[in-house]
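can u do me a favor
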């Protein structure tokens, strides 16, 4: 499927750009390239996941560097959260790659769509019902469990870790920018380990990875600037809207 038509190539490039913006601005953007590869190409589920994860290696590294430069990853609490997420991803991602061969597209799309909608509802409820006050970072055990679950899901379908990690951390009371920063470090591990697994299966379309990944990198820098330009409350509502918009597609398209 490397020889994609011009309209498909343009669409995939735009989804890569939008996905990169979403990764560093609100978190869930990493699912957009996966959706594009799934809906617009003839790739198998394993090829979709493998090709999408390849693009997240570079975006994760760039996003991590960006949030280190802006100071979020210099905070001890944020660094601890990022480290725990990254370590748990080492264990969870290979399991997701293995499960990919046994989970039907329809069932997983439905489960993921319901889960994404639930996360959006949780973030919305917390924003509406509780004052925006700083809270301590979640315990190591909670972060490790969250990171393991996200890594398994990311390994199965090739989504970036920030899609699920950011809203879950926000729901647990972690500030948005700190959640975004922690999730980028986790994404590097998920993408790197997942790429090794799918490359071993021969399930990566390299030309499509480049087609999607290059504009995705540009989007990462743009999204990082957007995240620092908008008020935190606006970022939370953008996150909620993005998740609610993606949930039906994930549930029905599977």
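np, heres the sequence
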């Amino acid at each position: 499927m490397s020889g994609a038509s011009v309209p498909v190539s343009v669409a995939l490039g735009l989804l890569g750009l939008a996905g990169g913006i979403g990764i560093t601005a609100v978190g869930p953007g990493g699912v957009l390239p996966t959706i594009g590869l799934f809906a617009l190409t003839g790739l198998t589920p394993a090829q979709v996941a493998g090709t999408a994860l390849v693009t997240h290696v570079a975006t994760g590294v760039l996003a991590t560097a960006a949030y280190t430069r802006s100071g979020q990853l210099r905070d001890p609490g944020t660094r601890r959260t990022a480290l725990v997420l990254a370590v748990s991803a080492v264990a969870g991602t290979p399991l997701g790659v293995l499960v990919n061969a046994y989970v039907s597209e329809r069932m997983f799309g439905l489960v993921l769509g319901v889960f994404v909608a639930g996360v959006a509802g949780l973030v919305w409820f917390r924003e509406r019902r509780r004052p925006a006050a700083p809270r301590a970072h979640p315990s190591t055990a909670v972060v490790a469990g969250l990171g393991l679950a996200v890594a398994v899901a990311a390994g199965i379908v090739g989504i970036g870790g920030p899609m699920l990690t950011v809203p879950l951390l926000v729901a647990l009371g972690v500030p948005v920018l700190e959640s975004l920063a922690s999730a980028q470090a986790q994404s590097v591990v998920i993408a790197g380990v997942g790429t090794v697994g799918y490359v071993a299966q021969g399930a990566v379309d390299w030309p499509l990875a480049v087609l999607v990944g290059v504009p995705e990198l540009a989007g990462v820098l743009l999204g990082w600037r957007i995240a620092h330009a908008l008020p935190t409350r606006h970022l939370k509502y953008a996150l909620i809207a993005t998740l609610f918009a993606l949930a039906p597609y994930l549930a029905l398209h599977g």
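The mean pLDDT is 85. hope that helps!!
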